[in-house]
Amino acid sequence: MPTPEIDPITLAVLAGRMEQIADEMDATLFRSAFNPIIAEAHDASHGIYHASTGDTLVQGKSGLPIFVGVMSFAVKAVIDKFGDSAEDGDIFIFNDAHLGGTHLNDMRVIRPYYHEGKLFCWLASVGHWHDLGGGAPGNYNPAAKDAFQEAFVLPPVRLARRGEINQDVIDILMRNTRLPQSAEGDLNGQLGALDLGVKRMGELLGEYGGGTVAAALAALSDRAETLMRAELATLPDGRWEAEDFLDNDGITDTALRIKVALEIRGEEMVLDFAGTA
CA distances (Å), 164 to each of 102, 167, 168, 191, in order? Predict the structure, then answer.
């Protein structure tokens, strides 16, 4: 079915409504989290993501900016593993940094949102938990030589199936933290934020219809690409290179090169990190 056209006023209203959903999810976790790293430092984030690609559609403005760049990869990791088997009411959880960026303290909780029996988008929450085992409390361990010495590593697993929480997963998580009360409080806060997101999305789609909201999301994505390409077109074509070094990796006293080449080609930009350690 073709995506319906959407007028600019409706588009602006829907953009604001969807941003508010993500912002309200942020606020819900900040108010309910047990640990001050989330509640006060706001080391967390929430967003709405594309149903099939996991690309970022809407992100809350109150969380850490770094999550804007990495949370889509976390959602894609869940899609890659569970996309064909996900059902309404399922919830997935993991902290594997190789699949979602950042570090192992950042626990990701991801939930599909269905409208009229069809997957419409994904909702995701990430928050920095106090402690997840490992060789040092809080998981900042300068003596660690691999990720397993930093913290417990959880791959993407199903935390809930059709709305029923798998208590076994929670038991495993709580047995691998020095602060189970804090961890369970943070998890419940994230689940509450996702519940709110589901409720608000239901209200929005009930008011405007799935076709109109889908059209707004597509239009916002197209507009972002158009604006970015227009800005790149104002820059001169060319290639520029730069490099810098980290002192070492904390294990071997050898400098680590970070090298990047930026190339502008009309309305396109290419970043080449060849030569980076």
Answer: 29, 9, 12, 12
Q: Helix (H, G, I), strand (E, B), or coil: what is residue 3?
A: coil
139: left (phi over 0), alpha (psi -120 to 50) or beta: left
- The residues, any chain, with a CB within 8 Å of residue 19's CB and separated by 6 or more, are 58, 60, 61
> Residue 72: pLDDT band by 50, 70, 90 thresholds?
very high
pLDDT band for position 250 (cuts 50, 70, 90): confident
Angle of helix 167-175 relative to helix 180-208, nearest 10 degrees, comes to 140
Q: Is the pLDDT of residue 4 over 80?
A: no
Amino acid at 72: S
Judge if 140 and 205 occupy the same domain: yes
**Residue 157 falls inside a structural domain:** yes
Q: 71 and 208 share a domain?
A: yes
